[in-house]
Amino acid sequence: ILNVEQSPQSLHVQEGDSTNFTCSFPSSNFYALHWYRWETAKSPEALFVMTLNGDEKKKGRISATLNTKEGYSYLYIKGSQPEDSATYLCASLDNYGQNFVFGPGTRLSVLP
Amino acid sequence: DTGVSQDPRHKITKRGQNVTFRCDPISEHNRLYWYRQTLGQGPEFLTYFQNEAQLEKSRLLSDRFSAERPKGSFSTLEIQRTEQGDSAMYLCASSFGGTGQPQHFGDGTRLSIL
């Protein structure tokens, strides 16, 4: 069973600050990594699907990188805005199973 | 695209009762997933379907839990003889195509066991 970890557990930043979080996952038998944003009272929303070592993806002010050899992914938010406040989840899938293993999430609060 | 819908949004029941939740995925999505989420944790995989076939079920899942997707469209998750530890948010997600495609989540069903 995969063990996916995320750090930090929570984060408070000022509006305009840039920030980043880490997702760690077992590097052996890696298949795919997903990032989701989960705002309070809403459903999780897919941000990125990453599969290749060295992948970099970008969506507006949010970007992510992937290192499958060492088993980590970074999520970056440039110029944080209050609407970025949410829990950011990563989920890893290995070659053995069809089930995704989610990390516990990083809760981001952006203060105006 | 009407999104993934789940029903009910909230369910309160007494310990020992059976409960059933429903999930309607996005219509063209062939994969459907069930997750359980408790406070401070990420979603925990329960089971998943490809069309009507249940292809994977968590080894941690009690026999009290069962899921169906009879015609490859909507799915139901039933919990028999509920226990206090079953209190959680139950999330459904769907996706189209192969493994690794982004999942679209419903708003979840929050279960509270008295």
Q: Can you put this structure into words, describing what you see?
A:
- With 112 residues, chain A is mainly beta.
- Chain A has no helices and eleven strands.
- In chain A, a hairpin with a 6-residue loop joins strand 9 and strand 10 (101-102).
- The mean pLDDT of chain A is 93.
- Chain B is 0% helix and 49% strand.
- In chain B, strands 2, 4, 5, 6, 9, 10 and 11 form a seven-stranded mixed beta sheet that branches. In chain B, strands 1-3-8-7 form a four-stranded antiparallel beta sheet, with no helix packed on it.
- With 114 residues, chain B is mainly β.
- Chain B is built from no helices and eleven strands.
- In chain B, strand 4 (31-37) and strand 5 form a beta hairpin.
- At the A-B interface, strand 4, strand 5, strand 9 and strand 10 of A face strand 5 and strand 10 of B.
Largest interface: A-B, 26 and 26 residues
Please state the oligomeric state of the protein chains shown. Answer: heterodimer
Poorly predicted runs of 5 or more residues of chain B: none
Radius of gyration of chain B: 13 Å
- In terms of DSSP E residues, the strand content of chain B is over 45%
Mean pLDDT of chain A: 93
Fraction of residues in H or I helices of chain B: under 10%
Structural class of chain B: mainly beta
How widely separated are the two ends of chain A?
40 Å
Rg calc of chain A: 14 Å
The total strand number of chain A stands at 11
- Portion of residues in beta strands of chain A equals over 45%
- Proportion in helices of chain A: under 10%
With helices defined by DSSP (H or I, 4 residues minimum), what is the helix count of chain A?
A: 0
Order of helices and strands of chain B: EEEEEEEEEEE
Number of helical regions of chain B: 0
